[in-house]
Design goal:
Number of helices: 2
Strand content: under 5%
Radius of gyration: 57 Å
Shape: rod-shaped
Helix content: over 70%
Order of helices and strands: HH
Largest sheet: none
Structural class: mainly alpha
Length: 150
């Protein structure tokens, strides 16, 4: 054990200064602890808000994934429909080509038909008279009743 009389006064002042600093720090400690508690409360509140936002982001992400899957299904349907339209267009094109061939054939035959009509037109009156003559023969078509007979 040390004899207190043998300790230098300077060391005693230094120890008293240290003890004073410790006492002052001890007085400030509740205020500092309160400030740290308040700061910790704000940090906890911000962390809770961040968790809520993260959960909302998760829900939004799940919705986006669901919508993406729906878009994917619709795009697959559109591709199928596009293939069907392509097949129909090929069929229409083939039919158009056949119509074009037939129209070409008709245009080729048209001058012959015009000549035939041109030759038959002058004979129309004779054919009509011949038909009336055949109708008067026995077994021919009966004559329609006349309206002027009373």
């Amino acid at each position: 054990m040390l004899n207190p009389l043998l300790i230098s006064p300077r060391l005693i002042f230094r120890a008293l200064d240290d003890l004073h600093a410790i006492a002052e720090a001890a007085r400030d400690l509740p205020a500092r602890m309160e400030a740290m508690d308040a700061r910790l409360g704000r940090i906890e509140q911000q962390a809770d808000e961040a968790i809520i936002v993260a959960q909302e982001i998760g829900v939004t992400a799940n919705t986006a994934v669901t919508l993406g899957a729906d878009v994917d299904k619709r795009m697959a349907s559109l591709l199928t429909l596009g293939r069907q339209i392509d097949r129909r267009a090929a069929q229409v094109l083939e039919l158009g080509e056949r119509l074009d061939m037939r129209a070409t054939e008709l245009l080729t035959a048209l001058p012959t038909l015009e000549r035939a009509v041109g030759m038959a037109t002058p004979l129309e009156g004779a054919v009509d008279r011949l038909g009336r003559l055949v109708d008067r023969l026995p077994g021919g078509r009966p004559l329609p009743p006349r309206d002027d007979v009373e």
